[in-house]
Design a protein that fits this description.
Number of domains: 2
Strand order of the largest sheet: 1-2-7-4
Structural class: alpha+beta
Distance between the termini: 77 Å
Helix content: 40-55%
Shape: globular
Radius of gyration: 26 Å
CATH superfamily of the largest domain: Cytochrome P450
């Protein structure tokens, strides 16, 4: 464009063309430029969305809002989405705007195609997290994601997770001690469970003992973490806040900057101090070739936290993570592990309170394993077979991560006898997502999907279902790296609770209303009552 303007200046000054001719030339160039850079992509987007409608099946929609009002981000919208298989068995082309769609997949036949494709996350939502968690495992892609995933895998080896079990025991006990004073009252458990999981994550990630379960938002770091989660949730559901140039000029954007400064400064200070300590103790050694987690324990007498491992880990070339990369992974660990596990525990407690006969069966199992012992030992976690089934069934009905978005970096084939076409190809550049909530309630896979029935997860019943009918932790190469950590924390919190309390509902406990935010939460809390045992 600059070259064209300069050329026109030379021509007009030389008398070759008049100023009017110059303006006509500029107008023509602008028209060609707009046609190439605006009209052409618009036509391509239109053709793509129409093609997606063809392979998924056409639906009625608003010309401007698409399906946004038919399937709003509410409990009603979620439950309506779960009914889609009756007319569209495996997928639904969800229109977000006039020329923007996302192919929702909710059958095992189609979901695994996306999750095994290795496609990067859809920036439409995840980009709003970058200001907080940077380019960590959740948001990174390509070679950087592959390298960091390889470097972080030893942090979740069972030898490392053993040490975290004791921390989870201590944090769960702190929460339950508070609940002793609330016996017989209708209490919203979500805040207390969230603080308990945050306490656990801070201790496991950075050995930070903040007493956050008692001081609540008194600690600046705790307050900032909670604020960031709320701000990002608000932004993702408020369209006028989507553009950066608007968001960062609002009061909410300024609040976000302040919270980011607190969180990042705190993390950077701890990283710097820890590097010093490790260097002084001569503990920052290269990982051996077999990164199985054992080396960390051989070199350290104290229990290693997530930060210790991030600082010490090395790739094949002997290079470690930079301080910024470490900060991003710590922030990602806190974000992903704190709210998701909190959601899983809260909904599981509600389901136990709602189904007393299932609760009692769980309690009998817990008591038979633990007796009068309060802390759950590492080698006992695998013995909670029925409790594990209850947790899985709770996450089937209330998956913390209810949808996973991707943007295809290469064409993807979908195969299913239930589709209009037995095989179809989704083009590169398309947006697609696995709607886990709808997958877990798909009537073509699950018998009476709205019922709470832990027996679905006996080995015999699991064998009868397609292997990818249940995906609370995703699947494929980008599955949840911390799923064992999360399951262990949930087992510990629930088994300790069952030892000490009977959970129940009555007329004073309102029915929770699901609300899909960044994770699946309850709109106005989750209320239960407790009776000491």
């Amino acid at each position: 464009m600059a070259v064209t303007t300069e050329l026109l200046g030379i021509l007009t000054s030389s008398g070759f063309v008049t100023s009017w001719m110059a303006l006509d030339f500029i107008g023509l160039f602008a028209l060609v430029y707009a046609s190439w850079n605006i009209v052409k992509p618009t036509i391509e987007m239109y053709q793509l969305t129409k093609y997606m409608d063809d392979i998924a099946g056409k639906t009625s929609k608003h010309w401007l809002y698409g399906h946004s009002k038919q399937f709003p981000p509410t409990e009603e919208g979620l439950l309506k989405a779960a009914q889609r298989p009756s007319s569209h068995p495996t997928m639904f082309n969800h229109w977000l705007a006039p020329l923007m769609t996302s192919l929702n997949l909710y059958h095992s036949d189609t979901a695994i195609s996306l999750l095994s494709s290795g496609a990067p996350k859809n920036e439409l939502v995840y980009r709003y997290l970058r200001c907080w968690i940077g380019d960590g495992l959740l948001t990174s892609k390509g070679k950087k994601w592959q390298r960091n995933r390889h470097l972080l895998t030893p942090a979740f080896h069972f030898n490392i997770l053993k040490g975290y079990a004791q921390i989870a025991n201590q944090c769960a006990k702190t929460m339950l001690d508070k609940w002793e004073k609330l016996e017989g009252r209708s209490i919203d458990i979500t805040d207390d469970v969230s603080l308990m999981t945050l306490d656990t994550m801070l201790r496991c990630a950075m050995s930070s003992v903040t007493d956050c379960q008692h001081v609540r938002n008194g600690h600046p770091y705790i307050k900032a973490v909670k604020e960031l989660a709320q701000i990002i949730m608000k932004r993702t559901t408020t369209p006028y806040l989507f553009p950066d140039f608007i968001f960062w000029r609002t009061a909410l954007g300024k609040q976000c900057k302040q919270a980011m400064h607190v969180v990042h400064t705190h993390a950077e200070q701890i990283i710097a101090e820890r590097r010093n300590i490790l260097q002084q103790e001569k503990l920052a050694k290269e990982l051996p070739e077999q990164s199985d987690g054992n080396s960390f324990f051989q070199n350290n007498k104290k229990m290693l936290d997530f930060l210790d491992i991030l600082i010490q880990t090395r790739d094949e070339e002997g290079k470690g993570l930079t301080d910024r990369e470490i900060r991003d992974e710590v922030d990602t660990f806190l974000f992903e592990g704190h709210d998701t596990t909190s959601s899983g525990i809260s909904w599981a407690l509600y389901n136990l309170a709602k189904h007393p006969e299932i609760q009692e069966k769980c309690r009998k199992e817990v008591n038979s394993i633990l007796g009068t012992q309060q802390n759950i030992k590492w080698n006992e976690l695998s013995k909670f077979s029925y409790l594990t089934m209850v947790i899985k069934e709770s996450m089937r009905l209330y998956p913390p991560v209810f949808s996973i978005g991707r943007k295809l970096d290469k064409p993807m084939s979908l195969r299913s006898k239930l589709n209009k076409y037995a095989e179809s190809v989704v083009p590169k550049g398309s947006r697609a997502s696995v709607h886990i909530f709808a997958l877990h309630r798909n009537e073509l896979i699950w018998d009476k999907p709205e019922e709470f029935n832990p027996e679905r997860f006996t080995q015999e019943n699991i064998a009868k279902r397609p292997p990818h009918a249940y995906l609370p932790f995703s699947a494929g190469s980008r599955n949840c790296i911390g799923q064992n950590f999360a399951m262990n924390e949930m087992k510990i919190a629930l088994s300790q609770t069952l030892q000490r309390f009977r959970l129940y509902l009555d007329d004073e406990t309102p029915t929770p209303v699901m609300e899909p935010r960044l994770i699946l939460q309850s709109k106005d809390g989750i209320f239960i009552k407790l009776q000491s045992l």
